[in-house]
Specification:
Elements lengths: L2 H11 L9 H18 L6 E2 L6 E4 L5 E3 L18 H12 L4 H32 L7
Antiparallel strand pairs: 1-3, 2-3
Helix pairs in contact: 1-3, 2-3, 3-4
Amino acid sequence: MTLEKLSSFLDVILAGDNQAPSGEALIAALEMAYIEIANKTNALKLLTEDPDLSIIRKGPGRTFVRIPKLPKDPTDELDIDSELVPAVARYIASYISKDKAGIHLGIANNIIIDYNAKVEAYVAYIQEQAEDDGVVEHA
């Protein structure tokens, strides 16, 4: 999803509430949401083995979780797994909403819980395959 589409989605989920941010305010809110996501998930797109990137924390195995890059243009794709874009939008909405902040936050957290379960299953599968192939050594 692009920054432009995220802005439109925010207009939809904030209809009848406070107005969605735009311009630099949207970028600032996006940055905060990215930090929330990077702290709470092992987003596959954010996993890296390069410790010289903007690392926010350690990930599974020998990986690190990097901070997503902010878009420079409205048509730039968001630097996050597509399944997490709704969580990003809901975090931003929770920062802005006057009456439904808790609802948006709850939805964001549920998206993250579901996503994390999928990633844990995927990582376990990959590790199992590596063990079956004799690639992983046990300590």
